[in-house]
Specification:
Helices cover 69% and strands 0% of the residues. The chain is mainly α. α2 packs across α4.
Length: 179
């Protein structure tokens, strides 16, 4: 890929990214498996030659995959992960790396703005909020693990533990994993 083509991708990323994110949102609503969602977005982009022509097929598929992972994270979708594809050539891997780095600047943050749009003064409060959310996720994970030991497969939690049981577990977890 020439540096001219790479510059074109980087210059047109804003519009293409928006179209890509919209297609990814639609695909995540219809498909449970990432590769199926990738294929749906890919087919949608083929129908838009102006966007499709911006990227070569392997790089575009990687960008779609990254966008679907972002949407999965943003919207809590239950799209399954697929094994990584390691068959790409070095030129494509370099482009995918640039696309991946660029997508990190598009990472959605808890305050609703993308990472690349944050001000320096936003970053420490964001770090604290991300840490708080991560600890909350760790707490929920610990609760689920503790309950998994008590609840048989195929049966509901409420049929095996009381609110008081869960409250006791939660109190112990709160002591072990501070916010």
């Amino acid at each position: 890929m020439s540096s001219c083509q790479t510059m074109m991708i980087e210059n047109e990323t804003g519009s293409a990214t928006q179209q890509l994110r919209e297609l990814a949102r639609q695909a995540c609503k219809k498909h449970d498996v990432i590769d199926e969602a990738v294929e749906a977005v890919y087919q949608g982009l083929i129908a838009q030659p102006d966007v499709f022509d911006l990227m070569v097929e392997p790089a575009l598929r990687m960008a779609i995959r990254e966008t679907i992972y972002d949407v999965r994270h943003d919207e809590g979708s239950r799209v399954k992960y697929a094994p990584a594809d390691t068959t790409r050539g070095p030129d494509v891997l370099a482009l995918v790396s640039r696309v991946g780095e660029r997508s990190l600047l598009e990472l959605a943050m808890p305050n609703g703005r993308r990472l690349g749009d944050q001000l320096g003064s936003d970053l420490r409060p964001l770090a604290e909020e991300c840490r708080r959310q991560a600890n909350g996720n760790l707490r929920r994970a610990a609760l689920c693990e503790a309950l998994a030991d008590r609840v048989p497969d195929g049966e509901a939690v409420r049929d095996h533990v009381t609110t008081e049981d869960v409250r006791e577990l939660w109190s112990a977890i709160m002591r072990d994993i501070p916010l």
